[in-house]
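wait is this the right file?? whatever heres the structure
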């Protein structure tokens, strides 16, 4: 498991520019994990970071750009990108993300990975 932004910014609300500053580290992390087959993006911010990371590693993203959503899957290069709402208090307290929803998306990620590896952003 890793994070698109490697520090806790003020208010814990990272900016796209902060994601860009941390991008080279994320690219190096994914590049070293040769057995990763599935990337589970927790939130739209992570989804966009994963797409950019995969593109930086030479994977051509599909056109049009895959839109984030819970349980949305996109096949990019050697990876399957799987989206999930972020398990923040805002999403869990309001019921936007339930334990059953999170369990189901993790089970799907494990099933896709098979004998490969699952990574979380």
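ok assuming it is, sequence goes like this
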């Amino acid at each position: 498991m890793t994070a698109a932004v490697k520090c806790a910014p003020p208010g814990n609300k990272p900016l796209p520019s902060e994601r860009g500053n941390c991008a080279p580290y994320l690219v190096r992390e994914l590049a070293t994990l040769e057995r990763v087959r599935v990337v589970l993006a927790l939130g739209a911010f992570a989804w966009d970071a994963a797409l950019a990371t995969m593109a930086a590693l030479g994977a051509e993203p599909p056109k049009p750009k895959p839109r984030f959503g819970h349980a949305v899957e996109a096949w990019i290069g050697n990876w399957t990108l799987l989206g999930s709402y972020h398990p923040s208090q805002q999403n869990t307290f309001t019921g936007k993300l339930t334990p059953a929803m999170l369990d189901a998306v993790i089970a799907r990620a494990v099933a896709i990975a098979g004998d490969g590896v699952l990574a979380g952003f």
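The CA atoms of residues 24 and 45 lie 16 Å apart. so i think its the right one actually
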